[in-house]
Design brief:
single chain; 165 residues; alpha+beta; 4-stranded antiparallel sheet; 3-stranded antiparallel sheet; 21% strand; elongated
Length: 165
């Protein structure tokens, strides 16, 4: 089987970028029409913070850095601090939702050093998701805003898991 590279979903980033630009333009117009003593405050506290996510969206679109690599050996999640999951250690991949966020849960085999009970995994999920360097590692893979939807990704991962070659 060939290696698969998964990128961020451009469609959602473009929609977010357009929405933020429209919102920023609206606040800019409000700042121009507001009384002179309110205009700088409107610009400073409302319009300027809207530019930050706009710049971030443009950066992500421009950079086009892969989010994930799927090989015959496993999955490499390309977060700020990349981490890997070896298929040899995994029993199954399952869909998980945490506070409305779509994840792919990783259930390790009992002999794996990363194995934990379902209760232990659930208990530590909040802390793992807050980690900016590698959110979810090593028990959950964030599966939103990817070029491949979660269901298709689950299908590919479980197929690779059962048929590694």
């Amino acid at each position: 089987m060939e290696d698969i590279t998964i990128y961020p979903a451009k469609k959602r980033l473009v929609v977010a970028l357009i929405a933020i630009i429209v919102l920023t333009a609206l606040f800019f117009v409000l700042a121009l029409w507001a009384p002179s003593h309110i205009a700088p405050l409107t610009w400073l506290f409302i319009a300027l913070p809207c530019l930050i996510p706009t710049c971030r969206a443009v950066y992500v679109l421009y950079k086009h850095r892969p989010c994930m690599f799927i090989t015959h050996e496993g999955v490499k999640v390309n977060s700020k601090e990349p981490w890997e999951v070896r298929f040899a250690d995994v029993e199954q991949f399952i869909p998980i939702s945490h506070r409305g966020y779509k994840l792919i849960g990783i259930r390790y085999k009992k002999h794996s050093p990363d194995w934990k009970s379902e209760e232990d995994i659930e208990e530590g999920r909040k802390e793992r998701m807050l980690c900016k360097e590698h959110p979810g590692a090593p028990y959950d893979i964030p599966a939103e805003y990817l070029s491949m939807n979660r269901e298709k990704l689950l299908e590919v991962l479980n197929k690779r898991l059962n048929h590694p070659l």
